[in-house]
Amino acid sequence: MKKSILAACMAALVLTACKNKVEDYSERISFVQTQDGTVYGLQDNEGDKKHPADLFDAPDSVIQMLGLEEGIESSIRTYIVCKDNYYVLIDAGLGEMGHGQLLQNMQELGLEPDTIKQILITHMHGDHIGGLLSEGEPVFKQADLCISVDEYEFWNKEENQLQQAVLKAYAGRIVTFNEEDLLPLGIKAIAVPGHTPGHMAFQYGNVMIIGDAVHGWDLQKEHPEYCARFDMDKDSAIQSRKQLLDYCKTNKLFVGGMHMPKAFIQL
Ligand SMILES: [Zn+2]
């Protein structure tokens, strides 16, 4: 084999290896390089976060067996998908209602809010959309806000203040989508209803962002049959969780999620 071909093969091997691991960008930011682009996981909460075990409907015996009596490691996260200087934000975290770190994290990556042209929302709970507003005004003035049809229709009927404020602030820039629709950067939406009616997961290459399909990874990875109190329709949340985790396992995906103990876990 000629030297140059050998060098090319080695470079390809190194590149493949790079694409199959989670790397730290900073204390709060990790990333995975996919075949197409990069997915950054941004920790939104300050300090450590645990969910109390009694947030879940698992029996005490299971909690004890897994050693989770002191709580289940969690977090609040947002994600950014990037290809060729095009940036898509997935969820916006707590925002000012909970000292969300999204803008500081973006600053570390050298990004201004106006760099974001598209925002995908897994669902419209406060810890996912709080960061869209600052003093009632939209933070992301150049971005479309993409919400699934079912999620939009559900919250549009509700009286809830935060959801109404977000829908009003981004009026004219809201794009609704269904599972089969083409999303920016070729991101694939996967319907995982149950936690909320129009809850969505997003796949980009070998990374799956599962939203709130899992709240307590150390419990629910092996026991998807247990729900957190926040799951609105428990039967459908269980079915969605099982199917999604099976799919991620079968395809050996990196799993990211808004309440995962780490930004990415490879299955
Ligand atoms: Zn959440």
Can you walk me through this structure?
The protein is of the alpha+beta class. It has a single domain (28-266), classed as Metallo-beta-lactamase, Chain A (4-Layer Sandwich). Helix content is 27%, strand content 25%. The chain has helices at residues 3-18, 60-65, 102-108, 126-129, 149-157, 161-169, 217-220, 234-250, and strands at residues 22-24, 29-33, 38-43, 49-51, 72-74, 77-83, 86-90, 116-120, 133-134, 137-138, 144-148, 174-177, 188-191, 200-204, 207-209, 254-256, 265-266. An eight-stranded mixed sheet has the order 1-2-3-6-7-8-11-12. The radius of gyration is 19 Å and the shape is globular. Residues 11-15 have low confidence and may be disordered. The structure holds zinc ion. Zinc ion (ZN) is lined by residues 125, 127-128, 212, 258-259.
